[in-house]
Amino acid sequence: MFKSNKPLENIKVLDFTIALAGVYVSWQLADMGAEVWKVEKYGVGDQSRAWAPFINGMSTLYTSYNKNKKSIELDLRQEKGKEIIYNMVKKADVVLENFKSGSIDKLGLGYDKLKEINPKIVFVSLSGFGKNGPLAKLPCYDAIAAARGGFAASNGDKKGSPMKAANANCDTLTGTHALNAVLMGLYNVRKTGKGSYIDIAMSDTVMVSVAETIIDYFTGNYQGTRFGNNDRFIAPYGIYETRDGWVVIIADTEDKWKAFCKALNKKEWITNPKYINNKSRIENVEELMREIEKVTINYKRKELEKILLEVGVPTSEVLPFIEAYTSEHANKTNCTSMVNQDKVGLMRFYNNPLQFDNKICEIKTGAPLLGANSREILKKIGYTDEKIDELYEKKVLGSSLI
Amino acid sequence: MFKSNKPLENIKVLDFTIALAGVYVSWQLADMGAEVWKVEKYGVGDQSRAWAPFINGMSTLYTSYNKNKKSIELDLRQEKGKEIIYNMVKKADVVLENFKSGSIDKLGLGYDKLKEINPKIVFVSLSGFGKNGPLAKLPCYDAIAAARGGFAASNGDKKGSPMKAANANCDTLTGTHALNAVLMGLYNVRKTGKGSYIDIAMSDTVMVSVAETIIDYFTGNYQGTRFGNNDRFIAPYGIYETRDGWVVIIADTEDKWKAFCKALNKKEWITNPKYINNKSRIENVEELMREIEKVTINYKRKELEKILLEVGVPTSEVLPFIEAYTSEHANKTNCTSMVNQDKVGLMRFYNNPLQFDNKICEIKTGAPLLGANSREILKKIGYTDEKIDELYEKKVLGSSLI
Q1: Is A151 found in the same domain as A105?
Q2: What is the pTM of this model?
Q3: CATH code for the domain of B248
Q4: Tell me, what's the ipTM?
């Protein structure tokens, strides 16, 4: 068993990340107990500090993604700023960065330099399109990764346009993969004593997330059509309208299909040649969807969910936001916690989805104000108070506390 | 540096997973060098063996998700079948399962039992809604997790219905998180010598993937409206139609907005009060989108991408499937490999998105036929050929080779 629910408690992370995919990795590492040293630009800090929504002038987008971390405000253009990084690397286990491709090398802080200082370092670079290849220098945002990796092409209504998700799901997905990279690197250090360099591209992780469609494209007959709220292989498998919202209904076997028809008082569908088996239902899926909605529209969503679950047909209401995060389920499974946040006061954070030994990963602190931990971190790596005062004076170190 | 690009080469995984979220975890582990012992139901095997698309009667959905693994075909209802599992657990590092909540305990193969046999085991359970809470017993499929976790509610057109993704993105996301759990568990064993139990729920990982909207719901003014191809906070940030497809355009600063207007010969937008700053553009985002599309529809997507990239506006064509996976970028960055697959011959697999020390994770083998490795695995854990022959005779072990 874990000594605590913080498996990474002894790990130190030097975190240069400035865009969500990377910030997400250090968020996860911090949740798991790692000490994250968030290196922020002197006087400015993380770009998301300026992004809505705000409470008391504090970005809750920033706070949510940066809880449990520590902030050091640093001028990397000064030699003494770089020197601090070199000294931090000596004590760190992991370096994370998602600057524009190649920028960290130009700063003199690339893997080749840092591994000389600490050969055990696990160095993870996140980028849009990898370090090589024809797109390496192009800008990448979540929606661009979605567009280049096939998510946008496959998401959306059959007759509509390709669609991005409402959230930066390509960023968070890339972050989750990058976390795997960090953990494999750390495992490898324990095993072999050696560090490593890991390169991860958003476009590649998006491709893996749409693997099913790629498989079907390369080995089946998928030509890239969007299927909206139907499935390509199973019918019914989709989202259907009810009187007060929507439900997901999945009848992925003939038994479930029959139970579904009976429960809706539509026994005639069972013998209708157009719906006689899954193949026929797929061929007539658009018509079938319209027919199903003529029935489902007469029910309330919770009522229909109950009726269909009782006869063994996997069904779920589509929860509106307000219900998803305030439901009995969300409460009972500890999806969120209230934590004290500087400048904000008590605010709601969501908990990490991993539960170790049946305990949630406790949130120790909110997100740091800019430069809040500069002195603390430098003392940990051996700087004296006098030396630190000097660095503040020379504006190598900052404590803007915004 | 890694000795090879297979950081998990010494790890053995006892893999009971039967649904994609779990199968995805062992796929990733196998890619990274772990030896995955896929325990399959006697005479039947992995359910996806029966799922389209097929080549030579072999499901390429199955092969793609099960490459690099080994298959043991086993009757778990027989005592001798369970005994085999107990002996496998002695040699294994990881156990993965995603049976219906509680089923593995009833089979006598739950964590409490297996940790007695091997206290170092890292045991990961994946489920729809966790082991506890009011939804624990409900069936969960990808679209149901999307419906309960807020992805469906936020995805889709403003005036349309909530929308699931075209792919099982909630399954793969949960798998990626579960892989993190496995790796933290393995790291912890190296550190403390002790195993652990980790529970992971699809609905929870989906919630984290829509974190931005949750933050905005709890701390901002988001009421759960869908925003389709626009962004809630930045305009323009979206997908726009062109003469031959779509482009993503992102003008997230005033400088980029001005450069965008000039490049499209729409300088009058810069001074139009409705678009004068980001706040105004967000207020008029639907009209702005229509106005932009009146212009973009006159360009070809690659042409528009080039024009806007040249003036520093992040832009990308939305790649149709056929182009995404056959592009120069996909080729140069080794997104896929051709590998020999039993029954199929040479087929295309996609590579793991993680590159260690600049090397792709080589795909060693295709996916196993049902029971292909039963004898091999049993010999590894100490069974003699005579004993194994006896188990085949008693139909505890199978080699259906389908």
Answers
A1: yes
A2: 0.94
A3: 3.30.1540.10
A4: 0.92
